[in-house]
Amino acid sequence: MGDLHNVEIVQMGIVSYPETLELMKQLQQQRIADEIPDTLLLLEHPEIVTIGPRARNDGILPPNDYPTHAVDRGGGLTWHGPGQLVAYPIFKWDLEEEVSVAAIINFLEAWILKALEVSGIRGHRDERMQGVWVDEKKISSIGLSFLRWTSRHGFTVNLDTPYNRVEALAGCGLDSSTTTSLTQLGYTLERQKLIEALLSTMEECIRRTPKHRYNFANDEPK
Question: Of residues 95, 170, 172, 205, which has the active-site annotation?
């Protein structure tokens, strides 16, 4: 199975997308140079729809009342906003079996599925699109960008998002209302409970060990 990496866990609260994008780029360069260990950013963005190359190439845009930002990660349209957990793994993917983007996406999907399982929610994959689905609805999106096999961007889990904001988006072959939140499906999962489930299953699913945990406000391990 290969050696384990230690991971710094950084809970950041609510942070604007442009600010986080610059931080990710900086951390990616530091990780490539082995100046920092694998680092997982956990946060929430004010509402914004990120538009990946696939959506731009297909001419797919959200409705006019959504703020947008073009990005270089894989995939199409991704909604960010209140009630969503965003996870950005700034990881060097060099362990055994981490041999392709598809393999890495598969590891991340399995990790999210396991975290949901230990939280009492049964998820599944769907041939329509990568990510994680619950009750035939997509509740988690995954999109990464790599440089020297070190990732930035990451995945989302829609917990309790505002009614009909993510549901109103369509793109990349999915109809509107295909993506939704756990609350709209009748499930209740608190953000911190999901974070703890992800951290408790990290070693089993992606062979990394959560070590120091930092709070964005005071940067002190907890």
Answer: 172
